Structures are given as structure tokens and as C-alpha cells.
Amino acid sequence: PSHEYKLNFKKSKEVCLSYIQDAMLQKQWKRAAEFLTFYIESLEKDFSTEYMGPSEMIWRIGTEILCHHSNSSMKEFNSFIEQMKTLGVKRYLKVCLEHAFHLLCNGLIDEAYQNLSLAESWRFGEQTIIQNKELKLIQAYRGLLDYYSWRKQKNILLEHGQDGFEDLSVEQEMHSCFRKAAVSLKEIIEIPGVWDLFVKCYVDLLEFYGDHNEARQVLNEYAYNSKFPANPNAHVYLYQFLKRHGESKKSLTSALKILHDIVPSHELMIDFNIMLQKSKKRKKRRLGLEVIFAALDYAGWKENVKAWSCLARQMKQIVMSEKHLDWIKQEWNSRKDWWPAFHFSRYLAKRNWQENESLSYEKALVAGILLGKDCKYFKYISHQGCKAQVKRFRILKKFVNKHSPVYLRISS
């Protein structure tokens, strides 16, 4: 073919692709399917020597269209995917994996398992070695489905108790699923990466069979091995495991300390603060104040009554003892320019009072200590509380008025 023909052909392909993209963005799946058919037909007529093998593009676009097209069926989807597997040897296992996901999303668990098992036994010379990562994922997801079967069998046993021949077969099936799942899951979580679901399932298997040491080792490795990416969930899982098994406060606080360093806004920071407040060590109580202040820097915590209650309780203790006012001062120094507008505006006072009396009480106590008795938030809430004749608001007003010199010392 002439050079001009090649250029025109290339241009028409690009135009066709842009039409497909436009139709998909507008969710016009029927129109997108028609353009894709035209695009595939045009590729069959492509005689250019620099053939680019667009099967990945067709696979991605075709899958998306079939997932949303009103007339498409599972039979059609399976047929299309099988064609893609044949065409795309270089991404065979990737297609298999996505096929399994699609089957799972449609509740076809047995079919997904069968597909993964077939993909696991696939061999194609060098391509098998090149696609080793995908093969590992295939094995891992097959292991996940073995875990799912194990859970099902376990629940049958727990519901019906161990009586009769039938239960023996269920128990045997359960142990068989356990062995297969454990092998696959163990293998994948040894590779550095983020394997949250796989780790949780493997730990569940180990705990059920009483292998707590192995479970602890797995979670420690997942949380602390520097080859693995930093992952807050790894520390959450370790903390939850330690808590389940009644480990020492020291172990629990060290797990949460790392979580605080990575995600200061994590919901477990309330547990962490409570634990630190109860400590007899000054250093830990100081950290507790830092933890709760840091959590309340985030918008998602603005209306968290528990968090404000934790901060109010600790600040009240400090103010009453008049020890460690410098802790409050240090935390407040970096926040005094923006917290008043962020947390303690008159608008928020009105809204908080209307929506949640307990929240407004805790916040008013903190606002009164940090900004003094003339603070807009404190004035509005204490006035409303006293007007409504709620006893604790009268006590709150007295407390802040009595300790007004504290505000002067913090703000100086």
C-alpha cells in the first residue's frame, strides 16, 4: 500500500477510536459497540508492516462495553473473553484474572474457581516465565476461593455440631480447603507488596487452628519488614491481633504509635489516646495530648464527640492540677491561627447546639480553656445551656470563669 493510504488508514483508525471513547464517556454503549465492530474490521484490513497488535485495547474497551450493554449476556461475555485469551498470549493470565473477577462479581464462584485453576496450569514457553507475577496472583486468588470454601464448611460444622457421618465428610472437605488455601496465601504474602485481604484470611486460618505464633510472625513481618511498602492496615491488623490475645499495653501502644506516625487521623487514635491517658508515665500522657490534638486537625473529626470528650477530659485534668500547662501551650501555639475559625466559630456553635448538645458541651469546654471566656463559641454555648437550664452548662461556665488565668498563661 502507498504511503498516503497508510496515513489515511492510520488517521481513520484514530478517529474511530475517538468516537468509541466519546460514546463510552456518554454511556452510549450500543453506539460504542458499533464503532468497536468497525474498528476491529478495519484492523483486519491493516496491511502495514508496523503492526502494533491492539488486542489489549480491544480487550479493555470490549470488556467495558459488554459489562454495560443492555443486551449483553454472560454467554457473550465469556465467548469474547475466550477470544481475547487466544489473541493475547502476551497478556493471557491478565485476561484470565479479569475474567475470574467478572465471574465473581456475578456470583459465579465455581466458574471463577475453574477458570483460575485452568489458568494456573497454563504453560506457554517463555511467556510463562514473563507472566510469573500474574501467575502468582492467579494462585493467590484461587487460594482466596479455597479460603472462602473453608469458611463455608466451617460454618456448616459450627451450626450443626459434630454428629454423624455427614459431618465427617464436611470436616475432611474443610481440612482439604485449609491446606490448599494456606499454601497459596502463604506464598503470596511472602512477596513484598500490599496483601491486606490475603494476610487477613491467612491469619484467620492460623488462628482457627491455634497456630498463634505463626500468625503473630506473619503480622509482624507484614508490619515491620522494610521491603514491604508502608501500610497503615498492617499495623491495624497487628494491633487487633494483639488485643484479641490479651497482649501487654506496651505491645499495643507501640503498634498504635507507628499507626499514629503514618495516619494521625486514623479512627483508632481514640483508643490510643485513652490508653495513653491512663498511663502513669508522664511521657505517655504527653503523647496522648499530642495524639488527640493531631486527630482533631482533620475535617473528618470535627464532629466526633468521643474525640472532643477525650481532649476535654485531659485538658480539664491539666488545668485543675495546674501541672503541664506547657503541654497545652505547645500544642496550641501551632494551631491558634487557624483552629478558632476551623472549630470555634459562632456559626459552628449554633449548628453544634442544634444538632448535638454533648458535642457542643465538650467543644465549649476546650474553647473556653484555649480562647478564654470571651471566645464566641464558648459564650454562645454556655449562654444557650444556661438558658435551657442544663446543670452541666452552669458548672462549665463557672469552671472556665474560675480558671481564666490559665487562658492568659496559654496565650501569652
From TrEMBL:
InterPro entries: SL1/TIF-IB_Component, TAF1A. It holds the Pfam family TAF1_subA. One of its GO terms (biological process) is transcription by RNA polymerase I. The gene is Taf1a. This is TAF1A polymerase. It comes from the Eukaryota. GO terms for cellular component: RNA polymerase I transcription regulator complex. The lineage of its organism: Eukaryota, Metazoa, Chordata, Craniata, Vertebrata. It comes from Pluvianellus socialis.
